[in-house]
Amino acid sequence: MAEETTRGSVERKRVVIIGAGFAGIHAAFHLAKLPLDISLIDRRNHHTFQPLLYQVALAMLSPADIAQPIRSMLSDYPNIEVLMDEVVAFHVDEQRVELKTGAQLEYDYLIVATGSTHSYFGHDEWAKLAPGLKTIEDATEIRRRVLLAFELAERKMQETGKHPQLNFVIIGGGPTGVELAGAISDIAKLYMMKNFRHIDPSRAQVLILEGSPHILGMYPEDLQAKAGQQLNALGVTLRTNAHVSDVQPGYVMVGDERIDAVVTLWAAGVQASPLGKLLGFETDRRGSVFVDEHLNPPGHPEIFICGDLAHVEQDGKQIPGVAQPAMQMGTYAAKRIARLVASELGSDGTGKNQPFRYFDKGDMATIGRKAAVAKIEWPFKGHWSGFPAWMTWLVVHIFFLIGFRNRLSVFRQWAWTYLTFKDSARLITGSQELPGWDNGEEQATPVAAGQLDLNSPKT
Amino acid sequence: MAEETTRGSVERKRVVIIGAGFAGIHAAFHLAKLPLDISLIDRRNHHTFQPLLYQVALAMLSPADIAQPIRSMLSDYPNIEVLMDEVVAFHVDEQRVELKTGAQLEYDYLIVATGSTHSYFGHDEWAKLAPGLKTIEDATEIRRRVLLAFELAERKMQETGKHPQLNFVIIGGGPTGVELAGAISDIAKLYMMKNFRHIDPSRAQVLILEGSPHILGMYPEDLQAKAGQQLNALGVTLRTNAHVSDVQPGYVMVGDERIDAVVTLWAAGVQASPLGKLLGFETDRRGSVFVDEHLNPPGHPEIFICGDLAHVEQDGKQIPGVAQPAMQMGTYAAKRIARLVASELGSDGTGKNQPFRYFDKGDMATIGRKAAVAKIEWPFKGHWSGFPAWMTWLVVHIFFLIGFRNRLSVFRQWAWTYLTFKDSARLITGSQELPGWDNGEEQATPVAAGQLDLNSPKT
C-alpha cells in the first residue's frame, strides 16, 4: 500500500479517472489546471473520437485522424499521470482502486467513465462473425472485411465467371447501423467505380436488419421516415421487426429465413463496461450504474460515474449514451470536484450546488456523403434532413474533433475525397480470410458471368 | 484453361506482372498506355513506399501516408486488371501462371518482381521475437512494441519504483538498422519528453549489432565514419563484428555475452521472394534469379525479372536491392516489351536494343531528424553528411512518393512534427503483451527509483 505514494505532496487531493473517452478526457482537461494530483487510467494509449469511427471502418479516414495518444493530449499538464492499465477491483470504502498489474491507487475523488461495449444478447460466439464498432481495432477489422469482400469477388469472377452476391448485412438500425450502411453504399457505388474489371461493385447490396418497428429509435418519426427515404435512395434495403435468430459464416437467420451475407456487421446492442458491476452499486439491465443528480452512486459523494456507464434519467427519459452527455458529465464532475476541494460544499456533498442537467443540443446521423438527419435542439429547434443536415453534421464534427492538427487533417481528407471520389485509406491489413467465404460460394446466389471487355470500361 | 479469356480481343498481347512494388508498378504505368491487356497480381491490395516504412514503424507517419491501394493508382487504365492473389506455379513453357485460387493466366510477356523478404539465417523462430520491416503490418507491429515498452516501463515504475532498462536492440547496421536506431533515439529523447511522469524516456538506450566490421556496408568509408559519429551524437551505441548467436524473449546473445533487450528488431538479412526459386531458373545464394543484360532468364526473352528478385551485375558489382534500380528495371522491361510488341525487335529478342544499365543517382540514409549520409552520384558526385544530406533526403523522398495527395500529407506531417515535436500517429493497436517482458523484470538491470515529484516536471 505504500508503493503508490511515489507522487506529489501529501496535502494535494488525488483524483483518479478511469477511462479516457469523452467523459474522462473532458474531466481531465477541466481538472488539469487545479492544484490536484490526477491519475488517468485507460487500457488503450489513445483517445478515440467515436462518432467518426465508421469513417475509419469504411476507409475514408485513417486511424490517426480520429485517435490521439492520451499522453500527448495531456503532456502540458505535469500534475496528470497517464497509466495504460486496467482496473481489476474497486475498494470504495478504502478509497482505492487496484490495477491489473497489482498497483494500488488511493484517491480522494474517483471518476469512472469506461463507457460501453457490444452486447450480443448472450451470443458471444457471434462476435467473430459480426464485428461491432467501438475501437480502432474494430474499425480496421471492418475495413478489412468490407474491402476484402470486393477483392475476393473480383478474384472469383476472374477465375470462374461468377461470384457470390455482395450482400452486406448490418444488424441494428441505430445511428451506427445507418451510418455504416450509407458509407458502404457510397464505397460500392462511387469510390470503387473504376477500380474493378470483372465485378460491378455498384451491384453490391446493403441490408439493415432492425429488430424494432423503426430505425433510429431515438429520433422523431418524421426524421425516421426521411432517413428511410434517403437510405432507399442510396439503394439500402431496410427491414424492421426483423429479429436475428442466428449468425453463421456467410449468412444470417431471421426467424426461419436465411439471408446470405458476405460481411455481417453488428450495430445492435450495447452493454455497459463490466466495471459498472465491479463497482458494486446497483446497475440497470445494461449494466449502467444508477446515480443521483450529482452523478454519485448512493452514499459516495466522492465517486462520480460519467458517460455511458451512468444511468441518469431526466424528464422521465434516460439520457442516451452518446458523446454530448458524456462530455457534459465529465465537465460537471470536474467542476463539482473543484468546489468540493475548495470547501464550497460540505465534504458529504451537501450545500448549494446545481444538479447535473443534460443540455441537449440535438442529434445527427449521416446517410452517405450528401445526406443526414438532424434533430436540432439548440440554438433553435428544428428537424433537418438531406444536404443542409449533412453540412451541419460536417461542421459540428470537425469542430468537436480534439486538436487543431486532426481538424485540419480530417477537413483536408474529406474535401479531397468529396471532390475527387478518391480515398487513400483503403488498406487491407492482416489476414486475407473472410469467414464463410469458402462455403459461401456454393450457398450464396451467384451473379451471372457478364463477360466484360476491358476495352470498354463500365464507366 | 478457357476461364481466363473473359478479357479483351484476342489479338492484343497479354502481359502479366507479378508484384506491385517499385518495379511492378513502374512497369504497369509504362505499359498502361499501350494497346495491351495487363494483369497485375499482388498478395496485398496496396503498394508500399518502402523507404519510409521506418517512419510508420516509429509513429511519425500513418500507414495510409505511404501506402496506396493498387486499384486506385491504376483505376484510370481500363486495360489493367488488378488481382489480389498469389502465384503458386509458373508454367514457363506454356507461358502461363497458376494462382492460389486455381485461376490460370496465360501471357505473352511476364514480369516477375516480387522483391525480397527477411532472412533469419535459418532461425525462423527468431521472427516473432525480432520483427523485421518489409510491410505495413511489420511497421505497425514494430510501432506497437516500441511504444508499449515505454508504457510498460511507466506502469512498472509507478507500481514498484523501478523498471527494466529500456534497451532497444537492432540487429543489422544497414540503412534500415541505422534509420530505425536514429528514429527510436529521436522518439525517446524528443517526442516523448513531456509525456511520462515516472520514467525518463530519454534514458532509453539504442544499440546496433552489426556482424561485419562496418555499418552501412554499401557506403564509402568516410560516410560510414560520419554515420558512426552522428549515431553516437544521438546516443546510439554501435557494435561491429557482433555476431548474434541467439535471440530470446528479453535478450539477445552475442557469442557468450547476454544483452538485455526490451525490444529487438531485425534489420540484418534479406532473401529473395520464394517465387525466384519457383520459376525454376538458376538463383544465387539469396534466391535471386540470374538474368542477362535484358533482364531475361536464359532462353526466355518473354520473361523479365526485375527489382530485388533479379541478380544483375554491373561493372563487376551486384546492383543493390533498393528502390531506384527496381524502378529502372520495371521501366526498362516495359519499354522492351513495347518494342517487342511493335516488332522493332525479333520475337526472340534479337535486334538493336540497349541492354539494361543501372543509372545510379546515389544513396541516402537518415540518422534521426537532422542528419543523414548521402553518396551522391548525379547530377554531381559528392559525399554529404549532416543537415544538408538530411535536407536532400527530405526533398528526394517527397518527390518520389507516388501521388500528389500523399506528398502533401507527408510534407504537412513532417513540418508539423518538426516544428512542434508532436506526432499523432503514436497509436498502440493490437495485443498489449511484449515478449519477455514478464521475466525481463528480474533479469534486466533495474533503473533506480528516482522519486519523481509531479509538481516539478522534468522538462
Describe this structure in words.
The structure is a homodimer of 459-residue chains. Chain A is α/β, with parallel strands linked by helices. Chain A has two domains: 8-43 and 85-115 and 273-341, FAD/NAD(P)-binding domain (3-Layer(bba) Sandwich); 124-269 and 370-443, 3-Layer(bba) Sandwich (FAD/NAD(P)-binding domain). Chain A is built from twelve helices and 28 strands. A five-stranded parallel beta sheet of chain A has the order 5-2-1-9-21, with helices on one face. Chain A has a four-stranded parallel beta sheet with strand order 14-13-12-18. In chain A, strands 6-7-8 form a three-stranded antiparallel beta sheet. In chain A, helix 6 links the parallel strand 12 and strand 13 (205-209). The first copy, chain A, is elongated, with a radius of gyration of 24 Å. Chain A starts with 13 loop residues before the first strand and ends in a 12-residue tail after the last strand. The model of chain A is unreliable at 1-10 and 439-459 (pLDDT under 50). Chains A and B meet through helix 3, strand 4, strand 5, helix 5 and helix 11 of A and helix 3, strand 4, strand 5, helix 5 and helix 11 of B.
Which helices and strands appear, and what pairs or packs with what?
Two copies of one chain form a homodimer.
Chain A: E1 14-18, H1 22-31, E2 37-42, E3 46-48, H2 53-57, H3 63-66, E4 67-69, H4 70-73, E5 80-84, E6 87-91, E7 96-99, E8 104-106, E9 109-112, E10 116-119, H5 136-160, E11 163-164, E12 167-171, H6 175-191, E13 205-209, H7 221-233, E14 236-239, E15 244-248, E16 251-254, E17 257-260, E18 263-266, E19 269-272, H8 275-279, E20 289-290, E21 303-305, E22 310-311, E23 313-314, E24 317-318, H9 323-341, E25 362-367, E26 371-376, E27 382-385, H10 387-400, H11 404-420, H12 437-443, E28 446-447
Parallel strand pairs in A: 1-2, 1-9, 2-5, 9-21, 12-13, 12-18, 13-14, 20-22
Antiparallel strand pairs in A: 3-4, 6-7, 7-8, 10-19, 11-28, 15-16, 16-17, 23-24, 25-26, 26-27
Helix pairs in contact in A: 1-9
